[in-house]
Amino acid sequence: MALDLPLPKTIFVHNWFMMKDGKMSKSKGNTIDPVGIIDKYGCDALRFTLTSLCTYGGQDIKISDEKFEYGRNFANKIWNASRFVLMNLEGIDDEMMRQVEKEIEEELARRKEGGK
């Protein structure tokens, strides 16, 4: 019995988030709590880890605490590298450095509160 339904114009293929014990599932209770990840590793680690694990073609994503640690370590390296560059620019003194850090922290706080 054939149905005369139009074919969809767009088909979305998505991946599964996999845990050590199989597919992530609310009914199994093995989902991750994003707030817990942010508290433990930081929001930059969560963002970096999830974006770096994105695959094209619907491959399953294996997620673990270890991968969030990698994200945290990478974000920390970026922070340290930016501080190194700023400290080694000619004409930048400690007061200017504190002002830049203050502006960055204010911007991050503003974005966290939902402002653009």
How would you describe the overall organization of this protein?
It is a single chain. This protein has 116 residues and is mainly alpha-helical. It has a single domain (17-112), classed as Isoleucyl-tRNA Synthetase, Domain 1 (Orthogonal Bundle), CATH 1.10.730. 52% of the residues lie in helices and 6% in strands. It has a 3-stranded mixed β-sheet, with no helix packed on it. A hairpin with a 2-residue loop joins strand 1 and strand 2 (22-23). Helix 2 packs across helix 3. The chain is elongated, with a radius of gyration of 21 Å.
Low-confidence stretches: none
CATH C-level class is Mainly Alpha
Percent of residues in beta strands: 5-15%
Helical run tally: 4
CATH architecture: Orthogonal Bundle
Distance between the termini: 54 Å
Q: Helical amount among residues, as a percent range? A: 40-55%
Report mean pLDDT, rounded to a whole number. 81
Q: What is CATH's topology name? A: Isoleucyl-tRNA Synthetase, Domain 1
- Count of distinct structural domains: 1
Return the string of H and E elements. EEHHEHH
Rg computed from alpha carbons, rounded to a whole number of angstroms: 21 Å
**CATH homologous superfamily (4th level) name:** Isoleucyl-tRNA Synthetase, Domain 1
Quick one: biggest sheet? 3 strands, mixed
Strand order of the largest sheet: 2-1-3
Shape: elongated
Structural class: mainly alpha
Task: Find the count of extended strands (DSSP E, 2+ residues).
Answer: 3
